[in-house]
Model the fold of this input.
Amino acid sequence: MHAWPASEVPALPGKGRDLRIHDTATGGRVTLAPGPVARIYVCGITPYDATHMGHAATYNAFDLVQRVWLDTKRQVHYVQNVTDVDDPLLERAIRDGVDWVGLAERETALFREDMTALRMLPPQHYIGAVEAIPGIVPLVERLRDSGAAYELDGDIYFSVDADPHFGEVSHYSTELMRHLSAERGGDPERPGKKNPLDPMLWMAAREGEPSWDGASLGAGRPGWHIECVAIALDHLGMGFDVQGGGSDLIFPHHEMGASHAQALTGEFPMAKAYVHAGMVALDGEKMSKSKGNLVFVSKLRRDGVDPAAIRLALLSHRYRDDWEWTDQVLQDAQERLGRWRAAVSRPDGPSADALVEELREALSDDLDTPTALVAVDRWAELQAAEGGTDDSAPGLVSRAVDALLGVAL
Done:
C-alpha cells in the first residue's frame, strides 16, 4: 500500500533540541534521545469514514514529533498501518450496501488526500492489515505453540497472563479494563476464556465474512492488536522510540499490543515511550464515528477552508489535551494565518533568530504548540507595529513555521 507525497521540510540554521514528552506507561515526561534514526509507529485509520478532526489532531501530534527529530538532524523511520479489514468496516459496508474492499480503498484514498493537504509527513511504510496477514499468521502460531495463546471454538486467544508486564502501559484497574474491553471491540463475557480480558488473535472464518488461509490456524482473519504488532516488529523491531495514537488506544490496543510483542520476543518494553493525543469533541461530546458528530477535513476543504488554517486550529491546542471543535476555533486560526502571512510578505522585518529558538524550545517541551504560536504572534505583531531592517527575517520565519509546525505561509 502506498502512502502520500512528502512535502519538503526546510532546513534551519543550528540544531533542534531533544524531545521531552509525556509517556503514558511511566506517567511522566521522558527525554527521547534516539540514535541517528528515530523509530516511530502510529496506529492508522479503520477506513470506513475518514478523516475527521479527531484523526487530524492525532496525526498532527506525531507529525510534530517527526519534525522535532528532523530538526535535530536525525532521520526518521515512520510506520503506520491501515486496518482495512475489521468489524466496523464490514458493518458499514453492509449498512450502505457496498463492497467492503471498495469502501476501504475509497476512504483510504480520501485520507491520503487530507494528509497531503495538511502537509503531514508520510510514513516510510504504510501497511494494510490485509497485506500483513502472511506475517501475522506465523506470529499467532508461535504464541499458540509457546502456550501464550489457546484455541476456543476455532478462534485463537492470547493469554494476558503470559506477559508479566501486562497492565504496565495503561495501569488501569481490572474493572476499568473489562469495561473498556467490552466497549472497544473485546468480548470479556465470552464463556470459556481463561481470562475475560484475553483478546482474540485469530478469528475463525464466519459465514458471509472475508477470510484468509491461516495455515495451521485454519481459515480466518487476524485480531486487531496482532496486526499492528506484526507490522511494527517487521519494520521497526523491539524497543522502538515511540508508539503513538489517540488516548482511546491506551487500552486495549496499546496494552495488548505491547503484551503480544513482549510474549513473542521475551524483550521489554516494546516501545520506549507510549504517547497519546487527546480527544476532540463537538457539541460537548467526543467526536466519533459511532455518534456521527464529525467535522471532516475533506468537507472543510470543499468549503474553501485553507488547510493551513485547519492545521493552525489543531496547533492551538496542546496535543495531550481534550478539547472542543467550534466555529470560533477555526475563525481564530484563519485570522492568525492572515496575520502571519501579511507579516512574512514584507521585504524585511525584526530579527527572527530568537524566534526560531523559542519555537524549538516550545516544541521540545512536550510539543507545547500554544506557546509556539504565541511566539510567532509576537514577532508578527512587532513586524506590524515597528517593522525592522533584517531582510532575511521574513524568509526565516516562513521556513521555521513550515519546518517545525508544518504550516506553509
